Known about the structure:
By secondary structure, chain A is mostly beta strands.
Amino acid sequence: DAGVIQSPRHEVTEMGQEVTLRCKPISGHNSLFWYRQTMMRGLELLIYFNNNVPIDDSGMPEDRFSAKMPNASFSTLKIQPSEPRDSAVYFCASSSQISGNTIYFGEGSWLTVV
Amino acid sequence: KQEVTQIPAALSVPEGENLVLNCSFTDSAIYNLQWFRQDPGKGLTSLLLIQSSQREQTSGRLNASLDKSSGRSTLYIAASQPGDSATYLCAVESNSGYALNFGKGTSLLVTP
């Protein structure tokens, strides 16, 4: 299996622009997570999907952030408008009971907002 | 809210030493605990998962223990190698939830 696939790997954008991050979970996994990692705050959960349904989005920082999972093999995290404080590494991860609840992470999307 | 703390924040050891990384958590009502490795510029790789009913898990030179009542876990690395250099993160899944609460990690450097 190719693992969790994220794109883009790196993005530099100007403040105010829209940013869309993409994720393809491992086939057969029914749980999908978006995390954000910064030096100051470490890894924080932004949103959790189960069977394509958003279960907990309490970690989404504000209305500028939105996430969708239109089907079992694709999810997006959108920031509009982006701000410099959104600069971070955004990780997508997936898991399932089949995997023994072991969570598998993608390589991350490194976002810089200037 | 579950708080996960890892000590030390950074550690440097010579090759061949055995070492212990520590993780503590505030709420003992956990579902499982996982240890991850993160290399620079990379994602996280799961090393060991300990279910709440288990006391330890082993994989090769790695051994992780769990003491729920005291809210502690340790990751023991035997005969460390330079290739073990990475950041090690501990994460806890609580009974009441599904998401992992992460510590900030221990940055390990093993020198030749």
